[in-house]
């Protein structure tokens, strides 16, 4: 009789240990899956930020950036803004504005990145073009 109760206790301990390891493994898998998903999201957003910074630099160096972007595959929306989907699935949206004065024109562009409909970042860019002023 003593042997049976001792083997029963060992069996119960073994079941508890196996259950503990199974629960630990399930928890660790969930943590790794969440970390992997976060890593992919961060990678997509980094690539979108690089693309936005590249277009911001091109905006500064061009006399007609709107036309350049259209030629590069950006699609024009009804409101006049341009949109492009990056290879990672992040949508870049460019809005343009100009403020003209006697001294020159301030050209502004705001690049907004949307990931799954959520705004990720907004990158404002501005270039000032001075007008030639006649001296007397």
Order of strands, widest sheet = 1-2-3-4-5
Distinct helical segment count: 2
SS content category: alpha+beta
Give helix % range. 40-55%
Q: Report the end-to-end length measured between terminal Cα atoms.
A: 118 Å
Topology as H/E string?
Answer: HHEEEEE
- Could you tell me the strand content as a percent range? 25-35%
**What's the overall average pLDDT, rounded?**
86
Query: pLDDT under 50 segments (min length 5)?
Result: none
By oligomeric state, this entry counts as single chain
Radius of gyration, taken over Cα atoms and rounded to an integer in Å: 29 Å
| Strands, total number | 5
Please tell me what the overall shape is: rod-shaped
Largest sheet: 5 strands, antiparallel
Structure explained in plain terms:
With 136 residues, the protein is an alpha+beta fold. The chain has two helices and five strands; from the N terminus they run ααβββββ. It has helices at residues 2-61, 65-71, and strands at 75-76, 82-85, 91-100, 104-115, 118-130. It has a five-stranded antiparallel beta sheet, with helices on one face. A hairpin with a 2-residue loop joins strand 4 and strand 5. The longest helix is centred in the first third of the chain and has 60 residues, at 2-61. The N and C termini lie far apart (118 Å). 10% of the residues are buried.
């Amino acid at each position: 009789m003593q042997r049976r109760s001792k083997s029963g206790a060992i069996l119960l301990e073994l079941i508890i240990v196996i259950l503990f390891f199974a629960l630990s493994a399930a928890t660790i898998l969930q943590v790794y899956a969440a970390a992997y998903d976060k890593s992919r999201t961060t990678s997509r957003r980094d690539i979108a930020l690089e693309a936005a910074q590249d277009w911001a630099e091109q905006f500064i160096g061009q006399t007609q950036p709107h036309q350049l972007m259209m030629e590069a595959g950006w699609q024009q929306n009804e409101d006049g803004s341009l949109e492009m989907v990056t290879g990672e699935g992040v949508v870049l949206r460019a809005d343009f504005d100009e403020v003209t004065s006697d001294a020159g024109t301030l050209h502004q562009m705001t690049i907004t990145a949307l990931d799954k409909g959520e705004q990720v970042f907004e990158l404002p860019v501005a270039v000032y073009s001075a007008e030639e002023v006649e001296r007397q």
